[in-house]
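User: I've been trying to design a sequence by hand for this structure and keep getting stuck. Would you show me what you'd pick, starting by listing the structure so we're on the same page?

Assistant: Good idea, let's start from the same input. This is the structure you sent:
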């Protein structure tokens, strides 16, 4: 079979190549992982007033909350919470990929510190979000840290 090469054949090949490229782009967009802040971001947004109340309750103690790390990550809680019945959680939030977030229950020692092993953490930026309650009063602390 002998194909006659003229301008019509060139247009047909160009259209085929363009359609192939568009098909490839559509395939890649379905393959692309969309990274939301969290799976339940809408529900969290509805509780915004509760979050603002936690932040307001924590304001007098915020300067005492410290985060430091060497081999382990050390969370230093304010002295007000030492030797009291505190419940809550510590969330290591990774903004670049929420599937790498880590959550721990609060377990302070007698000095108001909590140690977290860094074995299962990736290098990069984390936002440490501490949500706790003491005597039915909610508190919230936050700190940024970059693990190297």
């Amino acid at each position: 079979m002998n194909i006659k090469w003229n301008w019509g054949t060139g247009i047909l090949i160009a259209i085929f190549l363009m359609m192939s490229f568009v098909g490839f782009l559509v395939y890649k967009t379905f393959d692309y992982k969309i990274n939301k802040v969290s799976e339940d971001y809408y529900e969290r947004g509805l509780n915004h007033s509760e979050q603002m109340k936690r932040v307001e309750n924590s304001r007098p103690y915020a300067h005492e909350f410290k985060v430091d790390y060497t081999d382990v990550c050390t969370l230093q809680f304010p002295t007000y919470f030492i030797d009291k019945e505190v419940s809550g959680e510590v969330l290591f939030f990774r903004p670049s990929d929420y599937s790498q977030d880590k959550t721990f229950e609060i377990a302070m020692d007698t000095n108001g510190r909590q140690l977290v092993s860094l074995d299962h953490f990736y290098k990069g930026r984390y936002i440490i979000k501490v949500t706790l309650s003491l005597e039915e009063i909610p508190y919230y602390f936050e700190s940024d840290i970059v693990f190297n």
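That's my pick for every position. To get oriented when you compare it with your attempt: The chain has one domain: 41-147. The mean pLDDT is 85.
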